[in-house]
């Protein structure tokens, strides 16, 4: 009798779990997409990022207007000046390139 009662409880639990997931799925699908603005970059790299967002079905809308965007993607180029000590160490252990 106890095994039958536990099986019935498990069946009820699984039924409620499936019902909850069926109710929650449309709510998640109806969530509004995030509006994103991609700042222009030399070489047109922003068009590649926008195409990748569309191709991968990311829940975001790429906008051309910066004012109506929720998020802004920017670019940052960092350059590093190599010191003389690191040039010598690189020349000794890896390769030597005179600049």
Describe the structure.
It contains three helices and three strands. The protein is of the alpha/beta class and 99 residues long. A three-stranded parallel beta sheet has the order 2-1-3, with helices on one face. Strand 1, helix 2 (45-55) and strand 2 (60-63) form a beta-alpha-beta unit. The termini are far apart. The mean pLDDT is 76.
* Biggest sheet features: 3 strands, parallel
Fraction of residues in helices? 40-55%
- Write down the Rg: 28 Å
Structural class assignment: alpha/beta
Order of helices and strands: HEHEEH
| Widest beta sheet: strand line-up | 2-1-3
What is the overall pLDDT average?
76
State the low-pLDDT regions, or none: none
* End-to-end Cα distance: 86 Å
Number of strands: 3
The proportion of strand residues reads 5-15%
Tell the overall outline. elongated
Helix count from the secondary structure assignment: 3
Write down the domain tally: 2
Short note summarizing the structure:
The protein has helices at 2-29, 45-55, 84-93; strands at residues 34-38, 60-63, 71-73. It is of the alpha/beta class and 99 residues long. The protein folds into two domains: 1-31; 32-99.
Present the secondary structure layout:
Layout: H1 2-29, E1 34-38, H2 45-55, E2 60-63, E3 71-73, H3 84-93
């Amino acid at each position: 009798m106890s095994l039958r009662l536990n099986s019935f409880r498990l069946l009820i639990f699984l039924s409620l779990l499936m019902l909850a997931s069926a109710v929650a799925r449309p709510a998640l699908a109806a969530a509004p997409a995030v509006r994103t603005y991609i700042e222009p970059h030399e070489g047109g790299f922003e068009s590649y990022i926008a195409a990748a967002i569309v191709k991968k079905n990311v829940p975001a809308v790429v906008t051309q207007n910066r004012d109506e965007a929720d998020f802004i993607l920017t670019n940052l180029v960092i350059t590093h000046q190599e010191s003389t000590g690191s040039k010598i160490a690189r020349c000794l252990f890896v390769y030597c390139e005179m600049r």
